[in-house]
Amino acid sequence: MYAVFFALKKPLFEFLYKFAALPKLALITCLLLVLFACKGEIPPLERKDHPLPQDAEVSEAEPGIYGGFLVTAESQQPRTFNPLVAEDAYSSQAIGRFLNGLTTYHPIKEEVVPELARSWEISSDRKSITLHLRRGVLWSDGEPFTAADVIFTFKALFDERYPNRYQGQYIIAGEPIGFEKVDRHTVRFTTARAYSPFLYVIGFIGILPRHKLIDAYEQGTLLQEWSVRTAMHEPGELVGTGPFRVHSFRPGQRIIYEPNPHYWRVDSKGQRLPYVDYLITRFVQDRNTSTVLFASGQIDAADIAPGDVVGVSRNAPLHGFTVHHRGPATGIRYLWFNQKPGVNEDGRPYVEPHKLEWFTNKYFRQAILHGFNREGLIQSVYFGRAELLHSIISPANQRWHNPEVPKFPYDPGRAIELLEGQGFEFREGGQLYDKHGNPVIFDVYASEGDDITPQIMSTFRENMRDLGIRVRVRYLDFGTLVARISRHFEYEAAMMGFTGGADPSGGRAIYLSSGRLHLWNPEQEEPQTEWEAKVDELVYASEETFDLEERVDYVHRMQEIFSEQLPLLYLLTPHAYAGLKDKWQNVHIPAMGSVIWNVDELYLDREL
Amino acid sequence: MIRHLFKEIARRPLGVVCLTILGILYLCTIFSQFLAPYLPTDQDLNNAYHPPTRILMVEWRPHVQVYEQVDPSAARYEPVEGATVPVSFFSSGAQYRLWGIIPADIRLFQVEEPHRIYLLGSDGTGRDVFSRLLYGAQVSLSIGFIGICITMTLGFIVGGVAGYFGGRVDFAAMRLVEFIIAVPSLYLLIALRGALAEYFEPEQMYLVIVIILSLIGWAGAARIIRGMALSLRQRPFVLAAEVMGQSSFRILFKHFLPNLASYLLVAATLSIPAYILAEAALSFLGLGIQEPGTSWGLMLQQAQELKVFTLNLWWLLLPGAAIFITVITFNVLGDVLRDIVDPRQQMVKR
């Protein structure tokens, strides 16, 4: 039995070994790696001279030179290459390498820019949008790209036989969006209600090649197409318009992409992008491994955790890389109380009535946040490389984040004041009792398996003990936790996190009282409280106006309500750090999203 | 018998060394509340990853060096020249209950707040590693004893009964043993642990884990005891006892137990380290003791971060050293005991 335990512990020793070997044995490790790489079959890339499309987009980046390969590492691998099946970020990322949407979000300019659509017009009633497609674009197998492909993609997306995650995105005011072909290079979309994030969300879905998938679509087997097996055995079948196409895929080892010979972007010298010969993603066991690989110069780019920045930076001169500070991360981490009234199927209330009374009291929630030493956590656990979160939108999202919301810094005195103002009182032993004489005790659920969570929860528990509140922490695995908070609703408090998107329309499932992720009291038929009704109103209003400043204003007001009411107690947001080798040129590191978002423009400076 | 054992151990230097080390370890564990300057949950968020504090002698009294944080982003602390705080011995501080019963407030050594004494450094939330090691020992060192108490009792009862009665009883007992041996224990553990996690607080998981570990661990012992009981069964003194009409129960405890005692003792000593390692491994995999509880395995798991190596936070790996020492000592002691009770298997010719 114990032998099994040690077998499982083995990765640690490998990891220790790798790290111990860092400075001295780096050379040997590299040599071994090269040997490994050579054993594989990366032939030199031959670039064929295909004519450029009529509507080719000229990149604003500095023109570069061809060659080199860029190596990254991921802890998870794609589970599918079919955008209608993909549910996870890793599959979506792989799909995004070879498929394009109609529009895309430019992380530096922070606005929607053309991708397969070269321009668009919005009708006067704002309910219909006409998109002009790029002319002369070819799929990676040489077939022409036309409006028929766009119509095919949206037909497949709304087909009842093919349930997928995009359907919800494209149902606006209860109705699916309308789409029609105007001519070979023009499509028109109509929405039931004016919907300003439309151009942003329309870019989510990668346009599929009709000529490749129409047979499967008609036979009803579209969801079985483009699986992991396709990528392994016939990568040529994965046809797209994106900068790359899949060269080869070995599950558990790596995926190699090569440039798409028909890609529609060129540089100012007329050279077709991308510059790199190969883009390689290695699959590694966990984040620690990819950090070690980066620190020892074996991969070109990696995200670095705040605690590892100093250690990794020590190797920077040796391997020629820089660890870039990207400011606060987009993810938000929060703790919340279950405010769901009513009873479950067995007739038991979801939350005991006296506890529900505390949880629905905003002063109670504010007091808890005042009593939580988040500043100290930032100091210790995050080495000062994090900041307090005050709003439901992370400060990383500079356009939408409202810095002027009510704030609740660590102030136990104020917390006690607030609690006493609500009839809570301290009795013998410093225990806090509510006005009906119930001791204040609650359970918090958190998910196991990340090293920061226990530290946050232990600190929370200690801080609450100082307020006379007994907190019991229970760790569950992530799936059980999600089931508990979204299906059974049998919990008192929980801690979780969300990764944020660029446009606030991505968060409507949280904001709206009818939303599926309105965690504290989801899927309400009618808004239960006045402030929730007000938030609903603001969200709808922000989606209807096309004026950016007006939208920002609505979203700012929504954040103020959230920060005043604190249905979610926002905790903190760590700073994001990205490591990248210095030899890459044209690097522009955005505040959010992938560091190598413009991988087609990156080129290698041979001298570095 | 016990006195004889001690005499024999005292004649062997290795045995004396092992007994002394274990004696110190267990004494520290029993008096951990008195010896530890802090509670295992006492945080100091301003002193995360503090290195072990230097102890200086100033005017013949031990003083603690005061440090200041020079670089919070790398957890770097520098000693402040000339600033020291005296260590006070046997002074009173925060209240605690010794062994959960006796109220007390005296601790072996403390320093005046807000200064802190970190004999072995501090962890990510400024908790004292020394105190946590002592409190963690309560779990890590007792888990083996509780474990063997359960396994040896069960093993003796099932094995002894099977060997003594033989026939159908033997058959049934041995099939049960085989059934338990055939259960893939790691999966059973993971499943049980997952299923029970909701109903227990992290502190209580400790007992759950011991019980799970020992309920699947007794089968091996039962088999061996059954074999020994089978041979004992034929010995004249057992037959005599039967002829004289002693009850089976009495024979089991009066005649079998003393004859099996030497085996039980050696087996127990040798299986304690297995429990300590199992607890460490489980906690390491995130299946064992959880925050805010503490154990050596959990502490080691919390040290499994890249920054421990890059920032040279070596003191976070001390629980590993503690496990190492304990396991080695138990194993050597087990060998010594076996030499004593079974001279034929003597390993070293003397």
Summarize, please.
The complex is a heterodimer of chains A (608) and B (350). Chain A is an alpha+beta fold and 608 residues long.
Secondary-structure topology with pairs:
The complex is a heterodimer of chains A (608) and B (350).
Chain A: H1 2-20, H2 22-39, E1 57-58, E2 69-74, H3 89-98, E3 103-106, E4 111-114, E5 117-122, E6 128-133, H4 147-158, H5 166-169, E7 171-172, E8 175-176, E9 178-183, E10 186-190, H6 198-201, H7 210-219, H8 228-233, E11 244-250, E12 254-259, E13 265-266, E14 278-283, H9 287-295, E15 301-304, H10 309-313, H11 316-319, E16 321-328, E17 332-337, H12 353-359, H13 362-370, H14 374-380, E18 386-388, H15 412-421, E19 425-426, E20 432-433, E21 441-447, H16 452-466, E22 470-476, H17 478-488, E23 493-498, H18 508-511, H19 530-544, H20 548-565, E24 568-570, E25 572-581, E26 584-585, E27 603-604
Parallel strand pairs in A: 1-13, 2-14, 21-22, 21-23
Antiparallel strand pairs in A: 3-4, 5-6, 6-10, 7-8, 9-10, 11-12, 12-14, 15-25, 16-25, 17-23, 17-24, 18-25, 19-20, 26-27
Chain B: H1 2-10, H2 13-30, H3 32-35, E1 55-58, E2 61-71, E3 76-86, E4 88-98, E5 102-110, H4 129-165, H5 167-182, H6 185-196, H7 205-215, H8 218-233, H9 236-243, H10 248-284, H11 296-302, H12 306-310, H13 318-341
Helix pairs in contact in B: 2-4, 2-13, 4-5, 4-7, 4-8, 4-10, 5-8, 6-7, 8-10, 9-10, 10-11, 10-13, 11-13
